[in-house]
Amino acid sequence: MKKWKKPLFVVLLSIVSLLVVLVTGAVMYANYYVNDEDIHVSEELFPEGAPKKILAIFAHPDDEIMIAGTYHKLNKDKDVISVLSTFTRGEAGGTGGLIPKEKLGETRTKELEKSAEILKIDHLEVYDYPDSGLADAGHEAIKQTIRELIHLYKPTTVLTYDDIVGLYGHPDHVVMSKLTKEVVTAEMEKEDSPVKRLYFATLPKPMIDLALKLSPTFKERYPRDKGLPEPTIAFPMASEASARKQVLLAHETQWKTAASVQPYHDKVPSWIYYRIFDREYYHLVKSK
């Protein structure tokens, strides 16, 4: 009597099914490892009933990478009005060996414009304060520019980096965050202020610990004696994997920097990478 032979496709199906289970399990484990499950998961960046207007204030083109998933997801709502501002053109950064140094500010501005288009941002503002020189720039002028942004766009929610570390120790980030916090909290004291919430973009402890092991930039710059503020909410955006990857790729001159800050993003398929890192974290600084 001949033994029954399984058709080849059944064997292949079994192998594929096993691989899917293994990959899914690995992704779920990695997701659990890098995230803080105690942080409340929420998409509510706006107070209930308030206008859905959001303003992000950063130092450089490419800083928006850290909130790309949030902005892309929010902008799917037709009622949301989003504004992105950077106070320098990033002219002091690396060129990636692609262009002359004197062309960097112009090129990075174009990269930012492409990123804003991907994120479907309603308004983009780029200023000409000195890159890597904000600590010595005119702070009163910067604060006045922030006030003008608020008065022009009347945001309900303002996002920036934290004012202690600046995510990974960048001095420009810290300066912009301190000045933004000073202006925004003062504005929020006014009875007629449109601003209701101020958030810092931050990271949970598991991600910080991982970054200190894998990221050269974090290893070099992150201050060990003080840390990022603890997240208040985790904004879920696994669905925004493609847009997040496109935004990162839009900043072509900064791929080397991105690889340092987001290790292995260029080695792991984006559909896996951005399902492991499927949340963006924020610390609520002030609410009214």
From TrEMBL:
Pfam families: PIG-L. GO terms for molecular function: hydrolase activity, acting on carbon-nitrogen (but not peptide) bonds, in linear amides. Its cofactor is Zn(2+). Gene3D superfamilies: LmbE-like. InterPro entries: GlcNAc_PI_deacetylase-related (IPR003737), LmbE-like_dom_sf (IPR024078). It comes from the Bacteria. SUPFAM superfamilies: LmbE-like. This is LmbE family protein. It comes from Mesobacillus selenatarsenatis (strain DSM 18680 / JCM 14380 / FERM P-15431 / SF-1).
